[in-house]
Amino acid sequence: MRLRLRRVGVLILALAASVAAAQTTAPPAFDELLKLLAARRHGHVTFSEVQQLAMLDRPLESSGELLYDAPDRLEKRTLKPRAQTLILEHGVLAARRGQRTYVMELRDYPQVLPLVESIRATLAGDRAALERTFRVQFDGTLGAWTLLLVPVDTTLAGAVKDIRIAGERDAVRTVEIRHNDGDRSLLRIGPEVPP
Amino acid sequence: MTRPGAAGLIWALLVILAAGIAAHATYTADLSAFLPRSPSATQTLLIEQLRTGPAARLILVALEGADARTRARLSVQLARELRSDPHFIAVNNGDAASLERDREFLFRHRYLLSETVTPQRFTVAGLHAAIDDSLDVLASPEGALLKPLFTRDPSGEMLTILEALGPGRGPRTTEGVWSSRDGARALLMVQTRAAGSDTDAQQAACDGLRRAFASSLASLPAADRRGTALLLSGPPVFAVASRAMIKGEVMRLSGVSAALVALLLLSVYRSLPALLLTLVPVASGALAGVASVALGFDAVHGITLGFGITLIGEAVDYSIYLFIQSAAHWRHSVWPTIRLGVLTSICGFAALLPSAFPGLAQLGLYSVTGLVAAALVTRFVLPGWLPRSLGVRDLSALGERLARALQKLRGVRGALWLVPLLAGAALYMHRGTLWNRELSALNPIPAADQALDEQLRADAGAPDVRYVIVASAPDRESALAAAQTLGTLLTPLIDQGVIGGFESPARYLPPLAVQRARQASLPAPSILSARLQEAVAGLPVSAARLQPFLLDVERARTAPPLNSADLEGTSLAAAAESLLVRSGGGWSALLPLSAVASADLTADAVARVRAALAQERSAHAALLDLKDEADRLYSGYLSEAVQLAIAGFGAIVLLLLVALRSVARVTRVVAPLALSVVAVAGLLAALGERLTILHVVGMLLIVAVGSNYALFFDRSSAQPRQGSVPLTLASLLIANTATVLTFGVLACSRIPVLADLGSTVAPGTLLALLFSALLARPPAPAPPEAAPTGAS
């Protein structure tokens, strides 16, 4: 039953996406939003994240700070439960845990790419980059907007189903990621950290 | 010349003998011409790497043109064909299937391969920490990659292995196969079965590759094929290309040289018989040269035959003197001078015989034998064949004109002082960049091909390996053990930021003892199950979910150890095989090092690696800096060439002192030669040329060849009654023109060693003739004055 519901969900989603694709002219508010986001060169905010994985008994909770420098440097400093730093710079993702740093070229990992590129491209107001990886659907107003991002490449197993980013004007508030296997995560972005 | 018939008979027999030897000789055109004859221990390692090492067997294949999807299809098809070709032991194109096989292998054997498999890891505390770490990874974006593996590998051994293998330095993937960084070319990496030094087999491999490309292309629809091209690079390709180039160049250059000289002589002699007779000593000399090199060395290098072209220019001189200068006086007046000239030339070339650079030693032997043979044929065989009237044009008129022109020129010979001054100034100004001390100076591969190779290597993430630790051991297993030991020494250096990383065969194939120790670290099922139950306390995962983990550990605990057969079918097999090689009587493990940021290790880093190696003498390991070692080798050749050239020059001066018995006469003979050498060196420096070993050898040849001219001028002034001065002048001019033509042709070669030699000797001998003429004592209106201030 759950499975069937999900199938229906996928169907509706696909329908919505094709409708979105058919409307080639995006609403003017979307363009304005992208301009607004692109104008912002720097950001430093707190975050908290909850990830629900089917194979785990409890959700994984973490919190820390996000730093962004336009157009392509994004740093995620997890402070709790344990320190871990992720830096995305020029398409290279470096993960630092303890002593070791693990480096990957994002382009080589299509499963990982949408997880990171969705946030970066949104923060940069980079429409071309967004549309390279996703079909994009804008909803709401500049004051309270939602972007629904559906990956173009649906062939990858265990891949992202969709990503919903919500915000107010040039501030992103939540990033919700849903995976095809039912796992999901919700990233809440808190207030600006004073410099 | 008492028995011309007998001389002819001996000549004919010798020609047949030499032809027989030459026909059965082995000819090579590989890089062995440039490798030392008696290498040191590290040079042996270097040569082994160059000849048979894994790097020498790697071919980089790039497909360009068409669109990405077509290139990807072509790549898949080509890889399929090459995998069934016995010339190749490994064919990688990054397709999902082969990546999956590699990943499958690593995952299946993770408990034998992972460095973190220790007894501690499988205690309650160890498991708790490891699972907690894995949960951190799951929470990060890379978690998407590891999520499917988590229940089988909660301690994260796969991640340990992948981290040890290094970040994805491999090529980028486009449309499911490896591509260049810009995505415009599909890439494959192919390893040949044959050693790099087996040029014939490499040629067959390259041909096989091209055929496979053609048939893969034929499997595509015609519309898709448009503009597709195959690019090949790597040591095997270079070996084949340089052999073909040396072969082609030698044929082309000797053909052009011979044609030019024949044209010159025909226009001078206006007699076909004279031209044909001229060729007899030249051909005899060349044949004798090849035969002697075949007898004296294992194989005749193609490059020696290239150098041998120069013999045409020298040997032809003797018959020119014979035909042009009065044949009647030949034996008494001309021959003694030629004889001394031949002896000085031999002194010059013989100085090359002891060279450690086989190419030079062969050049020396070839030239010495060739010149002796040509001179002897000219002296003893040719005169017997001369028809009563050869019909050679009388060149007296030309000689007279030359003599008058020379008279005028002598007026300005004071200006010659400018030559050493200008040359000295040029040499001084370029003193910092005067010498080229890199082995690449001898590299016959065109710069464009080298640039393509560099680009493909960067794209393939297969940089030219510069630093390799070589550990020698009596057998395969102890070589692996040494690699494992070295790995534990090197890992701290990565953490300290001294080196960026290293590769090791022990990562793909741990030594047996290590595998057994890892297996012994794995607890029995009941124990592990109990510990896991305890370990997950407080973690958001239940032991029940991790049942697959228990099954996998038990399978690994009781599995037979890994051996190289398990690697078959993965791309890791080639990596393991290339890092573990049979050498001499034993085995060597190779551990290539990479630097932190740039391609080169700092001197401090090299010292610290060496210090780390010194701690563990049992591994019998040495750090080899391939570039440094190669450059040191070349720089040894260079200083040796300078010493040999000086020794050759000394021997020539000594010979002249003995023969002429007059310091003044020797000075007059040597001064113009020294002046031409200085002038050419200055000229090359002024033109921005950086001097290589072949320039030095060329300078020796200027002296060896130029001494002939100086000696004729010396004879003219010492014995003015003998021979005709104008005819001597004319013959010298023609002989010199022949020399300048042949060396000039060489200077146009695409092979640097030949071009360097040609561009030094061609202007040098021209100047030697000019300076000799200017500095010679004017031929005697007052014969009594000719009495020298004797040295005897």
CATH class of chain A: Mainly Beta
Helix content of chain A: 25-40%
Multimerization status: heterodimer
Beta-strand fraction estimate of chain B? 5-15%
Overall pLDDT of chain A: 81
Q: What's the architecture of chain A, going by CATH?
A: Clam
Shape of chain B: elongated
Unreliable segments of 5+ consecutive residues of chain B:
782-792
Low-confidence stretches of chain A: 1-25
Strand tally of chain A is 11
Counted by DSSP, the helix tally of chain B is 30
Please, could you describe this protein's structure?
The complex is a heterodimer of chains A (195) and B (792). Chain A is built from four helices and eleven strands, in the order H-H-E-E-E-E-E-E-H-H-E-E-E-E-E. Chain A is of the alpha+beta class and 195 residues long. Chain A has a single domain, classed as outer membrane lipoprotein receptor (LolB), chain A (Clam), CATH 2.50.20.10. Chain A has an eleven-stranded antiparallel β-sheet with strand order 6-5-4-3-2-1-11-10-9-8-7. The longest helix of chain A has 21 residues. Chain A is globular and about 45 Å long. The N and C termini of chain A lie far apart (51 Å). With 792 residues, chain B is an alpha+beta fold. Chain B has a domain of 341 residues. Chain B contains 30 helices and 13 strands. In chain B, strands 9, 10, 11, 12 and 13 form a five-stranded antiparallel β-sheet that branches. A four-stranded antiparallel β-sheet of chain B has the order 3-6-2-7, with helices on both faces. Chain B has a two-stranded parallel ribbon with strand order 1-8. The two termini of chain B are 31 Å apart. At the A-B interface, strand 5 and strand 6 of A face helix 6 of B.
